[in-house]
Predict the 3D structure of the following.
Amino acid sequence: MMRPRELIGVALALAACKSKPVPEGAPAPPPHDAGAARDAVVVDAAQVWPALTDLPLVDPVRVIFLPVRTDLPRFDVGGPAIVGDVAVVSSSQLGFAAVDWRRGTLAWTKPAGLHVAPPIAKGDSAILIGDCINPPDTRDTLLGCLRVVTPTGVDQSYAAIHGAQLEAFAAEPGTQEVWLDGERAVRWRRGALAVSIDLFTGVARLAPPAPPPIRVAYRTHAWDVGQHDERIVARERGKIAWQTQRTYTALIGAVYLAELAPMIRVINFGAYSGRAELNLFDIDATGSMHGQVAFPVPGISALGHAIDAVGNTAIAVRLDSSLRHDFIVGYAATAMMMYVYPLPEIPRADPVGIAVAPDAVLAFHDGDTVTVLPELSSPPTAPGAPRPPSQNPTP
């Protein structure tokens, strides 16, 4: 199989930052149009960040500011999760909020305590996990409350998350992730620990913290692809079918191109000729030597990434150690770089949430801002342009 050159991973650097002040109780600021948004929050990256001058810069479609409680600490941020026509985000300073990104409006909000997990979509519903506003009495350990809502914000269910012998998880301060765990549960990871939560009863039990593998099917074969010791490992019927010899920074997802076998998309950070850069590779999911490599971009680490059903990918990249220069790069499923967009130049401690919608890329950053960027699909005449999602196997 393809053996790209080995790169050196660089750890994510963090720094303290504050949200833009919004008076308590004030309504959400009005949406900004593309021109006003760029004038207001984005400086000319060609002048300030010389490393991006030769890359295809793009203006945002719109920038949406959310009302937050600046008198509260911002412990957690999460999302966006796309549910219907809204994108759901979470923050300690606003609870949960759904944004209609096409109209630039705030659709609905849901309260939560100081700690919130990233929202997740399940079909046409959003699953929200956070501290309980009014904690119920439980005989075992209470972890929070779980709410399932429709795209319009109507509650479908509400349950307390509780279970036995979960004291260590309750005290774990690490980074959070949430995944679907079968048909009626979600897995919530916090640091090195995870629990599986029944969506109907709220009962939680300890579970393995490893993320679920990517399921890739092709003809008569199906592989479960994951990352182990930074190497990419594909298993078929429980046995290793192939694995890489090189290590990679992150496993992104699966790519489906017309008339080709599916591929596995990975990224790596490293230094070449004294320049730190991000490289994106696509590895044939069958284990063959075929694959593709994208044009690299400068950067030292990733603050977030997302991929859609065919392989269109957006990555939030930290440019340098100043902690102020972060940008989003978008790649089509064909690995063609479509654009880069510099985020506002401020110290940024939080991760940047990314979602790839059918007609846009959404970024949630700085705890109070949703930026809408253009779609990523390459022209239909481009070699290997993906088929519509309905003609692709489910990743």
